[in-house]
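step: validate -> pass
step: tokenize input -> pass
step: predict -> running
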Amino acid sequence: MSLISKGRVCVDLSDYSRKQIGALGENIAAGYVERHGMRVVDRNVAKKTGELDLIAVEGETLHFIEVKTICTDAFPKTEGGEDEYDPSVNLHESKIRKVARTGEWYVLEKNWEGEWQVDGCLVWLRRRDGMARVSYLPQIV
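step: predict -> pass
step: emit ->
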């Protein structure tokens, strides 16, 4: 269900599946990196070694961006206290290694000659209205 609040379209995410939440988070992350000067050049590239959520270019650097999204009742606290869930816990070492291996494949296949790095992007979606909070983590490797 959608409603309009303060000039924004609000969407109740309660009935969204995990796949829909993940896709929405990737779209939000793509918009975020583009607003911060990167150009998204590829999305959801899958190989035997893993999947690359977003691939973006900034200057001479290729960024392989692993997106982790969580649907929550409230945004994380900014000043102390425990949060309900931190999506960064899914950016564990083995996941990052898979992204890096898949990134190496991508660099070779595309004949990329510049620098490249693996970044993380955490997206919290507030269930009641679909509002988002984003945290970008450069060079997580």
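step: describe -> The two ends are 40 Å apart (CA to CA).
step: cleanup -> pass
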